[in-house]
Amino acid sequence: MKKLILSLLLLPFAGKAGVKPFHSSSSLLVEARSGEWPISLEQTVEKSHISYFLEFRDEQVLTSVVLDTLPFEDLSQLKYFQQALTVLKKGDNGDVAKFKDYSIKRSDTKDKKKNYLLRYQWGLTNFCQPEADTLIAIIKKL
Description:
alpha+beta, globular, disordered N terminus
């Protein structure tokens, strides 16, 4: 009988021990490009940890809409992305910034417009200098 009463007293605490509240919020920081080929930067807050995600449509898949997400573990990782865009802007056609999981290549057009090719895993997107400038400006403010 004592064991039954003791177990009934401990049951509410045992039930709450396995349940962890999960509070996360996600917010759009900037939509660098909208429309059919979107590129957006989002921020996710989970308790005290903040992470960032660059979401883009994979340009290799034309038959359907496939959105890829390039994750950045923290602000320092995102700042490396911003620094790469800044260095490539001042660089030359064909320059490449390589990271562990992704790469950014500057690929200018014939009319001297600066373009960038972002490769992440199997995904690929292309964006131009005004979109890169938008991303650089937002990341600098963080």
